[in-house]
Every structure is written in structure tokens, then in C-alpha cells.
Design goal:
Elements (H helix, E strand, L loop, with lengths): L20 H15 L3 E12 L5 E7 L2 E7 L1 H4 L10 E12 L4 E14 L1 H15 L18 E5 L4 H13 L5 E5 L7 H16 L13 E6 L13 H8 L5 E5 L7 H5 L2 E2 L3 H7 L4 H38 L1 H65 L2 H6 L4 E3 L17 E5 L4 E5 L7
Parallel strand pairs: 3-5, 6-7, 6-8, 8-9, 9-10
Antiparallel strand pairs: 1-2, 1-4, 2-3, 4-5, 11-12, 12-13
Length: 442
């Protein structure tokens, strides 16, 4: 008999190990640490956020992928620059798994700049081009209208910015109509949609002749919430920038957060840090307008009251004059009597005044004449005294004689005499003829 083949023992399969989620994540982290760490990665920053704790969270990406990164406060404190979206960097750190969410994460320990990212480079090139062409020139910026009749709004129907803007406008200016031109604010074709929405609002701002009347648009809000550089990229479109520049009314841009800047921000007439702030810029608080209106109402009411009071007083005075003509007649009679009285007394008073003036003039003339006569009398007496002192008889009275020759010439010197010459001597009481008997010269 042939030998019997022994039976094959049954194969026992070991059931697969059942991992707990935490253990699996921990095992993957160990495998990553053993296989890759430490690791050095180059990429472009996207979605950079610095938390209040000092930790930084962002993504590193390139054309084929991206990875979430965390950089804790200690490592972030050693940076010598401020990271921003679109910047190309080189980081070193350790790969791991963030177990609470089961996500692959790179914990960054060092970071260094490696040149600007592609998107940011495109942004800078377009910004320099448009700035050189004058699209950012402050001379083209227009002030917001003081009294807005209608507001145009361009944003996405599903954006949180729409709710924020509508809430702010409803709170501040519920009486002003808002015209919404919806458009995508992110993704492929968003820039073209925004341009079409703006053109719709431009048609309302400058309606064609004969077109049906609608709510006027005095200012346009171009808004979107925050996001990474690539999320806001549709607002860095050149065609959109030129469309905003050609707006017939002021455009207020409220795109992203306060730290986000796009080409549309630079071209717009006014930039707001947030969509809500953009709405508040073109919509002063309703209460402010109501207070101003109340002040104007008070001023107009006071002016009207003063005007009515003045007219009422004038009417009362006119009524008083018309109602009692006898009083007016009596006043006129008193005035006429006063004039007549003045005329009656005016001539005697004038004559009396002239008489008094004449008497004063006469007295003054008499006094002046007397003074002049007295002065002349004194002068005549003085001249008479002086003339008397020159009388030759006074000299003769002192024993002198006046000698004259036959011709009547005065003889004053002995040299003029000769012997036997007859001379005439005039004395005080008469004359005598003398004959010269001798001449003796001293």
C-alpha cells in the first residue's frame, strides 16, 4: 500500500493591527522624522498670519504643491525681516504631524529671504508701469461728494464684505439707495466680471439721453474681504486698473485688510482699510445729518420769527399812524408853529446880535483911535523937545554970538577975518555991527 500523504496544516493569518488615530499619527510623525528631518525647503509664502501669542502660521507653495507651516514665537523673534505674502524664502525645520487635525506640518526653526515670489514680482512690475503712466497721480484723485444721492456697490453676492457694507449703510444712511452690481472677486475671470460690473454702474452715473431714469450713482464702492495674495490677485489686473481710472464718479476701494494693498487701491480715488470703513467714508452717520438739519431748522425758525416780529412792529406803527390822523396833523401843526416862532424871533435876534457886534466894533475903534492919538501926541512932544534943544537962541543965551560977514556967511574961524572988516554979531536980544581991529590966531 502506498504511503499516505500527511495532511497540510491550516495556515493561520495574523489579523492586521488596529491603530488608534493618535498612535497612527504618532507613528507617521516618527517615520517622517527618521526619513526627512531635519529638512530645508524653498517656496513662496502664502496666507501669512502672526497670532497675538507671537506664533506665525503660513503656507509654503510652488507651482506643484504647498505645505502648512508653523513658526513659534521663539524662532519668529530672531527674524531680521517681516515676512509677507508672495515673498520667496528658504526655511529649515522639522516635518511632523499636527495630531489634533491630522495634518502634515512643517515646524520652521529658521527662515531667510530667497528673493520675491513670482506673483509679487508681477505686482511690482505692473505697479511701476501704471505709476509711470500717471494712474496713481494724486492730481486725478477726486473728493467724495458732500451729499450722496446713490451708492454703487461692486462685490460678490456670497462675500462677507457684502453683509458688512450693507449693514453699515443701513445703520448710517438708510435713506440713500444702494445699487449692487455683483461680480466674482476671486478666481479665473473675476477681473473681467468686476470690469463689467463697474461699467454697469458708470452707465447709471452718466445716463444716456432718453434712457429711463433710475437711482443716480454718485460714488462707487469696490470691496472684498481679506485673503492671501493669490486670493486678491484679480484686483491686480491692468484692465481693471484702467477701468477704475476711467470712472466718472469717485471710487472707494475697500479690499482685504489694512495691511493688504492691490493695484486697484492705488488707482481708486480713496482707499479704505476694510469694506466697512469704505462704507463709512462715503456715508456719514445719519444722526450727524439729522443734527445738522435740526440746527438749520432752528436757525431758519429763529430768522423767520425775527422777520415776522419786525414786520409786525412796522405794521403796528403804520396802523397807529393811519388810525389816528389827528395825531399826525397835530404833530405837523406843532412843527409849523415852531418854525413860525423861530421866524418871528429870528430877525430881532439877528439884528440885536448885529447891533451888539457894531457897538463892540465902535468901542474898539474909539479905543484904538485914542491910543493912536495919544501915541502921536507923545511923539510930537518928544520931537518938539528935541527940536527946542537944537534952537540957536539957547546957545546965544549962554553968552555966545553968531558972526556973519557982509554976505551973510557964518564966520567960524579967525582965518576968515581981516583987519577993518565989518562983521555982524547976532545976540540974544538983537544984532550989532563990529569992526575987526586985530586978529590973533591961537
Amino acid at each position: 500500500m502506498p504511503d499516505a500523504t500527511p495532511p497540510t496544516p491550516p495556515v493561520t493569518r495574523t489579523p492586521p493591527r488596529v491603530w488608534s488615530v493618535g498612535a497612527l499619527c504618532h507613528a507617521i510623525a516618527d517615520a517622517l522624522d527618521a526619513r526627512f528631518n531635519p529638512v530645508r525647503v524653498a517656496g513662496e509664502i502664502s496666507g501669512f498670519v502672526r497670532a497675538a501669542s507671537g506664533h506665525c502660521y503660513f503656507s509654503l507653495k510652488d507651482d506643484s504643491g504647498q505645505i502648512r507651516c508653523a513658526m513659534f514665537k521663539r524662532a519668529a523673534g530672531g527674524l531680521d525681516f517681516a515676512p509677507r505674502d508672495g515673498q520667496r524664502v528658504e526655511v529649515s525645520g522639522r516635518l511632523g504631524v499636527y495630531e489634533p487635525r491630522g495634518e502634515l506640518q512643517l515646524v520652521v526653526e529658521t527662515m531667510a529671504r530667497a528673493g520675491e515670489g513670482t506673483l509679487f514680482e508681477q505686482f511690482l512690475l505692473l505697479k511701476a508701469k501704471l505709476e509711470a503712466q500717471g494712474l496713481f497721480d494724486p492730481a486725478h484723485k477726486r473728493p467724495l461728494p458732500r451729499r450722496v444721492r446713490g451708492i454703487g456697490l461692486v462685490t460678490s453676492l456670497g462675500a462677507a464684505a457684502l453683509h458688512d457694507v450693507v449693514t453699515a449703510l443701513q445703520r448710517r444712511v438708510p435713506h440713500i439707495p444702494v445699487v449692487l452690481a455683483p461680480a466674482s472677486v476671486q478666481g479665473l475671470g473675476a477681473a473681467a466680471e468686476i470690469c463689467r460690473a463697474l461699467q454697469q454702474l458708470y452707465a447709471l452715473a452718466l445716463p444716456e439721453p432718453g434712457a429711463p431714469q433710475s437711482a443716480p450713482v454718485d460714488v462707487i464702492l469696490l470691496v472684498r474681504g481679506g485673503g492671501a495674495l493669490e486670493d486678491l490677485w484679480s484686483f491686480n489686473d491692468e484692465t481693471l486698473a484702467r477701468t477704475v481710472f476711467d470712472s466718472p464718479v469717485p471710487v472707494v476701494a475697500g479690499i482685504g485688510h489694512e495691511t493688504d494693498f492691490t493695484i486697484a487701491d492705488f488707482v481708486a480715488d480713496l482707499r479704505a482699510p476694510t469694506p466697512t470703513a469704505a462704507a463709512e467714508l462715503c456715508a456719514p452717520a445719519r444722526q450727524v445729518a439729522l443734527d445738522a438739519a435740526a440746527q438749520w431748522q432752528d436757525r431758519l425758525q429763529s430768522a423767520a420769527y425775527r422777520f415776522v416780529d419786525r414786520r409786525a412792529q412796522a405794521l403796528d406803527m403804520a396802523t397807529a399812524r393811519l388810525g389816528r390822523p389827528s395825531n399826525a396833523l397835530a404833530r405837523r401843526q406843532l412843527a409849523v408853529a415852531a418854525v413860525a416862532q423861530r421866524l418871528v424871533h429870528a430877525l430881532p435876534q439877528r439884528l440885536q446880535a448885529r447891533s451888539v457886534a457894531l457897538q463892540q466894533t465902535q468901542a474898539a475903534l474909539t479905543t484904538a483911535t485914542q491910543r493912536r492919538m495919544q501915541g502921536q501926541a507923545h511923539r510930537l512932544a518928544s520931537l518938539e523937545l528935541r527940536l527946542g534943544l537944537l534952537d540957536p537962541r539957547l546957545v546965544l543965551a549962554r553968552g555966545y554970538a553968531w558972526l556973519t560977514d557982509a554976505q551973510g556967511q557964518a564966520v567960524t574961524q579967525v582965518a576968515n577975518l581981516r583987519l577993518d572988516q565989518v562983521v555982524k554979531a547976532t545976540l540974544t536980544d538983537g544984532t550989532a555991527e563990529l569992526r575987526v581991529q586985530s586978529v590973533d590966531a591961537n
